[in-house]
Amino acid sequence: MNNRTFFTPAAPLPLRAQPHQLAVGILGILHIVGTVGLNIEALRTYFLMLTPLNLLLTTGILLWFHGRFTRPFWFFALFTFFSGLGVEILGIQTGAIFGEYAYGWVLGPKIGGAPWLIGVNWLMLIYATGSIANKLAVLWQVKATVGAALMTLIDVFIEPVAICLGFWEWSTPAVPLQNYVAWFGISWVLLAVYYLSPFAKNNPIATWVYSIQLLFFVTNNVVGSC
Q1: What residue spans define the domains of the chain?
Q2: Of 48, 50, 49, whose CA–CA distance to 58 is shortest?
Q3: pLDDT at 6 over 50
């Protein structure tokens, strides 16, 4: 008699989304809803009021997946925030950095004419573009150049939408070339700090955050009601 025991294979476990996949899905949905809301005139003002919350939420989710919050990381984060905010204040006050421009009400309370949240925006984008370029097997100087190019690319698409929605306005009919040159140069310096600061740079959603942001502004340039 055969005493061998036979085991019935267990049913396969249902597939479950990983935390970073859920985060990407949430951010994607938020930006799709935002695109729709901003392009319905009756809802536009309400969605513009949610812009600061969206920026803080996106940055918070991005940094949640950073990993270890070491001293070098905090140095980079605070340096980027205050540097980004500082150059915006100087830019507003002098017109000598980006050109002559002024912020509207959308991004919230201001310091020296610049919304303090613009420092958060600099941190989010520098962190995301730095993480993307870090995947390249090249010198950090080249990575910083690639990251600064990605920063400038997204700014090209941000400008028309931001102007249309009242984020800020320029004193000239067209965005001055000076703005993009300054944006690239400042980004390069901040990315240099990113690469020279010894902390982990393998955030699993950084590429997605940048891609979602870029797609959001590209979409609003192409099909937006501005």
Answers
A1: 21-220
A2: 50
A3: no
